[in-house]
Amino acid sequence: xxxxxxxxxxxxxxxxxxxxxxxxxxxxxxxxxxxxxxxxxxxxxxxxxxxxxxxxxxxxxxxxxxxxxxxxxxxxxxxxxxxxxxxxxxxxxxxxxxxx
Length: 100
Ligand SMILES: [Zn+2]
Known about the structure:
Low-confidence stretches: none
Bound molecules: zinc ion
Radius of gyration: 14 Å
């Protein structure tokens, strides 16, 4: 059976090898380009914010990570719904991304 794999971020199709590696590393399927992107993001964003971002994306929510609103960076923004989410860096928020 041939399964289709695609990047959660850009929907570009990815190979099973890339898929397996990405899910193992990040918990979600990402193309090579977006694996690099999330590696860079993890330097300025917390793992909590990134986890929440992917949780939202997997539910089809058009969220944006580290959006700059002209004044400051917002952890996660959902412009369509005019919602900004600031993830509390001191909290023990435990969000796990799951796929499948
Ligand atoms: Zn991608």
